[in-house]
Amino acid sequence: MSFKRKLVAYFVVLTLLPLAAVFATFGPAVERSETEIVDARLRAALRAASGHIARRVAVLGPDGEREVGTVVGVVPFDRGLAEHLTRRSGVEAGEQVVVVVRGRVVAGPDRLRGTTLAAKPGAVETLDSAAGRVRVAAAADGHRAVVAALAPQ
Prior knowledge:
Blueprint (H helix, E strand, L loop, with lengths): L2 H48 L4 E6 L6 E7 L5 H11 L6 E6 L2 E4 L16 E6 L2 E9 L4 E8 L1
Antiparallel strand pairs: 1-2, 3-4, 3-7, 5-6, 6-7
Helix pairs in contact: 1-2
């Protein structure tokens, strides 16, 4: 091989090697960062949605200091609730908030209602669902339901 070709090959390797190292180093970091951004958005949406499911309000006496009772608002787990939570929670287009009872979606989009979703309260994970692979953040309502925010993968 001529000196000229060796020199070109040397400079090509010298140029591409650091570039390959940069891609190998920063590629996974960017992927993790994107996942963390989606997870943070899902958690925020979940916090916003969870506040709308159950309301417990203390009733104060005429003096305004002594609690005389509690009013509990009952919210039906239906399509209207899921749509309201999706609109008010701040999820982005294509993302959904659903209500899951005993592993089945009871409130959410038609394509998901009645399907299984093994969402674990407190966890953010990737699951397979009727909507394909989704990133799921879930929180329990304190009783039997789980509110889950879904983002497509």
